[in-house]
Amino acid sequence: MPFIPLIAMVRKDLVIFFSERRSVIVSFVVPIAIASFFGVLFSGPTAGHQPRIAVAIVDQDGSAISQAIVSGARADATLAVATPTADAARESVKRGKIGVAVIIPTGFGDAAGHALFGAGEKPVLAFAYDPSHTAELAMVRGILTQHVMQAVSAEVFGGAQGQQILTQTLAQVRSSSMADEDKRALIQLMSAAQSFYDRQRTGAGSSARPRGLTMPYTANEEPITAGSNIAYNGYAHSFGGMAIQFLLFAMANLGIEMLVERERGLWNRLRSAPVSKTTLLAGKAASGTIISLAILLVAFAFAIVVFRVRIHGSVAGFLGVSIACAFMASTFGLLVAALGNSPATARGVTTLAVLMMVMLGGAWVPTFIFPEWLQQFTVVIPVRWAVDGLDAMTWRGLGFASALAPMGVLLAFAGIFGGLALTRFRWQQE
Amino acid sequence: MLTVEHLHKAFGPLVAVDDVSLSLEPGTLLGLLGPNGAGKTTTVSMIAGLTAPDGGAVLIDGARLSGDTDPKKRRIGLVPQDLALYDELSARANLRFFGSLYSLNGRALNAAIARTLELVGLADRERDLVRTFSGGMKRRLNLAAGLLHDPDVLLLDEPTVGVDPQSRNAIFDNLEVLKHQGKALLYTTHYMEEVERLADRIIVMDHGRVIANDTLAGLYAQVPAVAGERPSLESVFLTLTGRSLRD
What we know:
- The complex is a heterodimer of chains A (430) and B (247).
- Chain A is 65% helix and 5% strand.
- Chain A contains 16 helices and 4 strands.
- Chain A has helices at 3-19, 21-42, 64-75, 86-94, 108-115, 134-156, 160-174, 180-201, 234-263, 266-272, 277-307, 315-339, 343-360, 372-377, 382-393, 401-424, and strands spanning 53-59, 79-82, 100-104, 126-129.
- Chain A has a 4-stranded mixed sheet, with helices on both faces.
- In chain A, helix 2 (21-42) crosses helix 11 (277-307) and helix 3 (64-75) packs across helix 6.
- With 247 residues, chain B is of the alpha/beta class.
- Chain B has helices at 40-48, 91-100, 106-120, 135-147, 165-180, 192-198, 216-221, 233-241, and strands spanning 2-11, 14-24, 29-33, 55-60, 63-64, 76-79, 153-157, 184-189, 201-206, 209-214.
- In chain B, the strands form 2 sheets. Chain B has a 6-stranded mixed sheet, sandwiched between helices.
- The chains are: A mainly alpha (430), B alpha/beta (247).
- The interface between A and B is medium-sized, with 26 and 35 residues.
């Protein structure tokens, strides 16, 4: 391949790209700004600042059990509890100020106590929620289950309300149509529990109030990152994703510029020289790769300096994935030029194509939040491999071997895109 | 120097060039005339190697031109109808790039840039961006870009479209100089007065075929004088190609 024409092609494209202030700003500054914003969202809570779920609890019952539920919820570190009226709670949910309102209806305590042994009808705990906060609804429901079980069981086996409930429940069981053997066993269990808590109340046992049923385990949560003392840095993902998005836009624009050059007859002049089509397209691919790589590396350099993003894995792997990604993006630009009829039509289609690729590839949000079938589908999206490869080399701290698959797949995509461009590109305006 | 033998090109059912043959000698200018769609640009494209002919051959000093990278392409320079320049670059940067495509570099490239800019009168504007140039200046730079590698054959496809009389005259002067330097020039145009002034020989094409190939005097002789006055080239052209609209 002739070296001088190839170098000339690359130098010319670089000079033109960097002489256009707007394209430089869009390609280098905008991804940094957007990635910074996404990084804030995905970095999670800072140490000592665990976010709490805002929840309203409306206690219409006022029983010992309902009051114990409210107390338990207030003491829970994951909830920020307010106790407005029912109407005010619903209004707050409607306005989006809180995600979930829990209404404990009148008679809840009594009914829950009776229902604990299956003898009574189960009372209804009402959840009014913002449909855009369904994840919070699930979390609040789980947390309240614990507090309701604890409050009801503690009261049933130790409180005054519980004593009354237990007496009534024993009478109901004795008069029930249950099989005699089952009836005897249940009465024995309840009587034993009653006498156990009687002893505690009269001072024969421990003086502490019964705690009721509690979770039979505690959880030890360990984030698996690059190392035991290395915290997850959400900026690593957001900068990778945004840089990929904008280098794809830059390369799509490079392809559109090729269509403009064709309209202006520039390709005729280029092709009148004794230079092969392969050299001409290789020059474009090389300049595109350099520009893409610059966008990616500048974005990460900013993230490293400002947001303390670190390449905890293989530096060689990081560079390998970056170069493969840049090459894939530049050949994507060639494909745009090969398939586009005119600059105007190509512009609209490629914007959609890039947005789809980055959205499905996990550049905006990690792919693990996608449905299972979509996660499997997105392996055909090159951006997915680029994002996963960069994640692996940065915050996941994986070794060079983990970069090989993303590099291989990205280079394969580059080969396909480049091959299609070489065979499909129309060198003359029709 | 340049010989074209029985060139043929069809785009689907449309035959754009049909059995076109011509030859071009050093130090001469061959005018190629024809109405729109006559096949002039397609003929030039095939000679320049932009379009592969379906049949026939293009020969440089008897050797057949073939393939994108044929070194013989260095002996041909193309001045396309479009202003094939990068507006974002300076005149010098444009020429530097186009010269590099012919593997010119270093002193040879600098000398070629200086020579061509001097020829077209743009030496004092070499560092200005092309986007700041007038239409006439762009046309002259377009010509310079085709001359950088010092070709023996220069293909000029309507090189004066849209320029003012001063720039057109300057381009004519440039072409006269090139002709005297021994370059072989193939010149397509719609302007009759241009070929009347410049051409040593004229080919008239219509519907993809050569319908006349003669000197200016020979063409005049094909149309009888009216009231003792010599016919104009335009009347000769209209006689040969007819008066029906082609667009």
